[in-house]
Structure formats: structure tokens, C-alpha cells
Design a protein that fits this description.
single chain; 426 residues; alpha/beta; Lyase, Ornithine Decarboxylase, Chain A, domain 1; TIM Barrel; 21 strands; globular; binds pyridoxal-5'-phosphate
Length: 426
Amino acid sequence: MHHFQYRQGHLHAEDVAVARIAAEVGTPVYIYSTATIARHYEVFARAVGVPRHRVFYAMKANSNQAVLATLGALGAGADTVSEGEIRRALAAGIPADRIVFSGVGKSAQELAFAVERGIYQVNIETESELELLSKVATAQGKRQNAVVRVNPDVGAGGHAKITTGSSANKFGVSFEAAGRIYARAANMPGVKMLGLATHIGSQILELDDLEAAFKRMAALTAQLRGEGLAVERLDLGGGLGIAYEMAAANDDGGERIAAYAAMIERTLGTLDVERGFEPGRLIVGNAGILVTEVLHQNLRPHTTFLVVDAAMNDLVRPAMYEAYHEIWPERQAGPDVPRKTYDVVGPICESGDTFATARTLPETRIGDLLALMTAGAYGATMSSTYNSRLLVPEVLVKGAEYAVVRPRTTFEDLIALDRVPGWIGA
Ligand SMILES: *Cc1c(COP(=O)(O)O)cnc(C)c1O
């Protein structure tokens, strides 16, 4: 379910014409739909049993302040992976007691910051991190709530680079070590060990791998309890996938979420634990589009390149993960418009700067607007200024209103980040 539809032949974000935003803000531009974000959060939260259980939105998917504030107002917590993300979540009004801190490489400074703010939970990924956390918290006279992230040796996900749950991946402690580390933590002054966490990958569409991982978590919970250790929380991570082929599948995600919730009841229903969830992509993925203008056409014998003004620095997923994004023309094409095959590419000096290869689209002209669909997750957050391109602006739509929630940066800002040492002389 998403709120990007054609009306009178033109693509709209909720009630706002995409062409209007493109004209007023310029292209390329990310456009997000409040109604879509809210709907996904609410459907997911209801399915997994909030408020008995908790949802921590994995904000690395989209960390714009306006998106965070929208979700925070609905009651969402935040799953964070850096001090910067914790600061962003707090700045957007998500209270510390709804923030979880994940990630394989937390520094002493980051842990101290998290403890000082009193966050809900630190997800421990190594034994040395456990020791560091205890030391840091003790120094502040505090005891920090924590869980141990277990690598269940069940990898899953849409691409090797987003699989995290295999033993070959760097994430979490091994299944065998988990019990020992958990028991050690029970004797540490600065840590209150409350449970286990796992997260096996991203863009997971088959539930079997998740189910296998959760069964292992259930078994480990029983084992630890048998050893007299209290396990009150199970953080089940994120990773649930979404349909990138929206037009074809007409998939609103509701069925997958219901099946996921049923599978969790089946595998963990008898355990008396508070469950935590860390969905990212599922909440914001199809709540965003990247709108770009066609700058040039390059006719070749085998294809026509459409050179657009967005590039891999604005949306890296196709270049990095071979990801597929549907492309919708802003102007709806009737059946009389001929279809042609195009390669849609950006202006960056790399062949990997390609959004789509051999894609069939209605005949497209220079100056036309195209929307790269399902770009709300891992789009703007992974953007860069490569090729000294300005960070792409972001717009949030709500009904008939829109707001620029991140303006385009300026060339002055970009250049002013650098310093030229005095010895060069100028
Ligand atoms: C990235 C990440 C998530 C979110 O993954 P999605 O596929 O976007 O749902 C959740 N938890 C952790 C620990 C992560 O690293």
C-alpha cells in the first residue's frame, strides 16, 4: 500500500502533483508520503502486538528528522547504530527510553553517550564490547540494560551484502559463546543483561530462514533459563522485505506482515518474553520516490541511454546491490504511446551509475520527469556528494501539503567543508 498514484494523467504524492514539487524544489528530489509511512507503522505495530511488545524503527533506512518525528508521534522507538543516530532520534523527540543501540563497532565514547542519556537497551555484539559497556556504565555509577546479539548461523536476505545472520558474517556472538557471555554479564556491575537479540539480514521475503533463526533463539532462551539466567526480552531484529515490483504484484505488504506475526506466535508464543522488532525498509521503503529529469538521450545501435539528473550518489542501491527500482513516468502514458527499451543512467563517471538496463518505458523525451519508485529506504541515508554533486533534497507530503524537510545543500557549503593548510599558500 502506498500513496503515489496517477490523477488526471499525472503522478501524485498523496494530493500533491509530483510535477509541482519538481518545479518548485528542483530535481533530483526525494518525495515521501506521510500516509504511507504511518500506515506501514500502524499495520506492523498492530500485527506484532504493541504495546505488550515494542517496535524500534531501524532509522538507518531513513533518518530524516521529519520522518523520525512522524514515527515518534505514533509511538515508535528507534533502533540506532551510531551516536549520530541516537542524537538524531533524540532531536526528533523520540525519548531515550525508546532507543536501542545496535552495531558491531561501538566506541567507548558512543557507549558513554548512550548510557548517559539512559537509553532503553544496548545490543552487545562482542565480549570486548560487553566489558567496555560495563566499565563505561560503572564509571557513571549506572547499570545499563543490555541484550546479547546472537548470530544464529542462518543467513537470509535479498543480496549477499545485506545478509548478516550467517556465521561468515561479522554480526553477533556465536551461538556456542552466547551462553557463556550471558552468564559472565550477570556478574558485571555495569550491565543488566535482560535478553537476546538477532537480525539475520535485509529484504527477506521467505519466512523460513527467519523461522529457523527464531527457533534457535527459543531453544537458547530455554537453555539459559535452565541455567538459572533470566531472559525477559527477545529482540527479533528487522529484515522483512517489501515488493519492489509494485505495479506487477500490487502487494500491500499486509499479508506478509500477517504471516510473519503468525510465524512468531508459532515459534515463540509460549515464551513469556517482551519482543522487540526493528523494521526499517518495511516502514519507509515504498513511502518514498526519487524524482529525476531526463537530461539527454544517447542513441546507440543496441539501446538508447536516458541520461537523468539523479545519480548513484543520490540512490546507490542499483549500483551497490544490483537492486531493481520500478520507473514510473510522471506523465501517465496512454496505450497509444509507443513503448521503447532504455538504459536509464546518471551523469557520474562510472558505468555502475545505472538505474535500469533494457527497461521498457513509454517513449520518453528530454525534459520528462521519471520517478524511481520504492526509494524511501536506504536512499537519502546512503547518499553522498561524490563527483561534488549536492546532497539531494527531501520533501515530505501530507495530504494536500508538502514541506521541504531537507533543502538542497549549496556549493558554498560543500566547498567550505574543506580547509587548505597554510603551507600551500594561496
Ligand atoms: C539494518 C538493521 C535493521 C533493519 O533492517 P531492515 O531490513 O531495513 O528492516 C534492523 N536491525 C539491525 C540490527 C540492523 O542492522
